Sequence to fold (299 residues):
Amino acid sequence: MTSATTSASSAAGADPHPRAGRRCHGVLNALHSTHYFAPDLGRELGALGIAHPRAVNFAARAAAMGAVGAGAVTAAFYNYRPETVAEHVPAVWSVAAPDAVLAARLRAVDTTLRRLLGDEAVASPEMAEAARLALRATEACTRAGRPLYSAHADLPVPEEPHLAYWHAATLLREHRGDGHLAALLDAGLDPVEALVSHTATGKGMTPRRNLAIRGWTQDDWDAAVERLRARGVLAADGELTEAGAALRERVEEHTDRLDRAPYEHLGAAGVERLTELGGAFAGAAARAGAFPADLLGKA
Fold:
């Protein structure tokens, strides 16, 4: 870290509260995720010949890693059914090269954000400030053991502030996500158990959405429910037990520890300001219909 960077970090204030990074990540991830639910991504990749919604999803997120195989994508994504991944990867790279997919993804993000936020917000000083703060936070991200973050960190930072902000949000999202997988493994939650227990918190996607997107069957889901009941994580009614709620919170706290460096680097004042700005942009996107109404929930 350079002296200038150290001074900037110190000027931002003391280290943030341990959960401040989690809150900041939440609004950054919301903005990042808008393009997955927007028609623009499917339209841009469809023009390249990638039509199946799952192929679009795999290609868009995995392209930064290059023309990798199904094994690498399954490992990095964690909670997708391996056979579902293999239906589309690596075949998707014979349709469109990763570089073409990345360019199409960025075009889709540009269109999506302009439609959801409006050109005035996209060009605003607040957007430029959010980009600067988010990019500063990424200076403290680490590559070791973080394949999706590290692959995206090799990509150039876009020049336009709204795309630079989205790029930084993507880096911070994947940095935390890679660490989260380590926390899930440490907690002994396999891919489907991780989905089931997250849905049981009320903060995850509904079972129907999870099955449609991740490729698991209802039998897979039901078997995971039974395993979690046997472990005392879920009650008979499918709700988290006290032990289950504690387990999920330990997973998040473990993830917080693995992801603390970017937010400590940014400092408490910087994290607070980035959360404020990011929350405003994410809220505006949500109000504009960025996400399906039935995306989250227990049923």
